[in-house]
Amino acid sequence: MANVEYQNSFILILICLFSTFYFFFVYFFKKPKNVFDLPPSPPSLPIIGHLHLFFSTSIHKSFQKISSKYGSFLHLRIFSLPFVLVSSPSVVYEIFKDHDKNVSSRGAVGFDECIVFGSSGFTISPYGDYWKYIKKLIFTTTLGPQALERSRGVRGVEAERFYRNLVDKAMKKESVEMGEEALRFVNNSLGGMSMGRCFTEENNESKLSKFTVEFASLILKIFLAQMLRSPLEKIGISPFKKEVMDASNRFEELLEGIIVKYEEKVDEHEGAEIMDKLLAASRGENAEYKITRKNVKAIFAELFFGAGDTSSTTTQWAMAELINNPKIFERLREEIDSVVGKKRLIQETDLPKLPYLRAVIKESLRLHPPGVLLPRQFEQGCKVGGFYIRKGTTLIINAYAMMRDPAYWRDPDEFKPERFLGQEEEKRENILKFLPFGVGRRACPGSNLANILIGTAVGVMVQFFD
Question: Can you tell me which residues bind heme (predicted)?
Answer without folding.
Answer: 444
